[in-house]
Amino acid sequence: ILIILTDGKSQGDVSVPARQLKESGIKIFAVGVKFPRWEELHTLASEPQEQYVLFAENVNDAVNGLYTTLTSSTVCHAVPSGCRVEAQPCERRTLETVKEFKGNHICWKGSKSYNAPYTSLCPFYSWKRVYKQHLAKCYRTLCPDP
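RESULT FIELD:
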């Protein structure tokens, strides 16, 4: 198995190496922390993606959630005695850039004749970064204190 922990966008194209690894039989867990790029996580992860794409608010939760996932999947079967796996609702958040229409403004456009530019209304957009929230299910392994 291969476990990839990420909190952002990779520096290059991940699709070819991910495909090669999957074709060679390696199971890939893609774990996003904080504000991951969901499309990249889905490109990296093995199928079924609901089992191999994971999310956590911070690294400690990622480690706990990954441990829980591994011990309750077909990859591993080792939940320590006295511990239990608990599902809970959680939210995953993504930081996305959205295009927002701001209105129409007068702009100059060229024409077929040499000396005759004309004006018309052109749309004006701004770009802003927004957080989007998505409901998800998180898993946690709970063990009694030693």
